[in-house]
Amino acid sequence: MRITNAPRPRQVAAWASLACIAVLLTACNSSTSAAASSALSTPTAVSTPSIPSTPSTSAAPASLAGLPSTPASVPGTPAAASSPTGADTFLAAGQDLNGTLLHEPACGGFGCALSGDSTTFLANMKWTTWSGSEAVGAGTYKIDDCRPNCAAGHVYPVATVVTLGQPVKVCSSSGTRWVWSHASFTFPDGLPQALQGQNAPQNPWTFSSLSTAAQQSCS
Predict the structure, then answer these.
(1) Residues ≥6 apart with Cβ < 8 Å to 59
(2) pTM
(3) Would you say 160 and 129 are in contact if contact means Cβ atoms under 8 Å apart?
(4) Domain coordinates of the chain in residue numbers?
(5) Where on the phi/psi map is residue 111: left (φ > 0), alpha (ψ -120 to 50), or beta?
(6) Are 91 and 179 in contact (CB under 8 A)?
(7) CA gap 187, 142 in Å, rounded
(8) CA proximity to 219, closest of 175, 171, 178
(9) What Cα–Cα distance (Å) separates residue 147 from each residue in 58, 66, 155, 198, 200?
(10) Band of residue 96 on the pLDDT scale cut at 50, 70, 90
């Protein structure tokens, strides 16, 4: 009995076709995977925005242009009293900077002590000038002749015109002040006999101790 094997070659051909298709699919998948991997492994170039250069710090801001480099002084502060004016210049009673500072004093009653030992006083004063450079007034100059001593001496009232000058700067927590450090006198009616010669009052008179104390207050 003969057995016919004709169909087998067809089956083999079909299997061969399927194998070829499988090989093609595998190759295609490999190419696709490689392309995808290449795309993922290569980053896309990103453009970096340009950063403007930082301006030089030496240039002043536009909002500050034209402003003064030094603040203006404030009235009433020590900086505002860099030079004497009539409003901030005083007579130190008894030449004591820690005592009473007198501004155009009338010196009523017994008067305003001019010396620290209370042997000279100004009384009944009328000031015709009181500026930052000098003060001029007319009144009475009371002078103790200190005979036999100042406590028991005789006080002479003498008509006088006094000129105060050479203001010195005094520094304190309350601000800067100026104080007269020099006095000169004229006596329209002259001096009594007891106050002439060696007993004449000092004229002109520089308040040396007051000037020293003023300088120390600002050092």
Answers:
(1) none
(2) 0.63
(3) no
(4) 83-217
(5) left
(6) yes
(7) 12
(8) 171
(9) 76, 70, 10, 13, 13
(10) very high
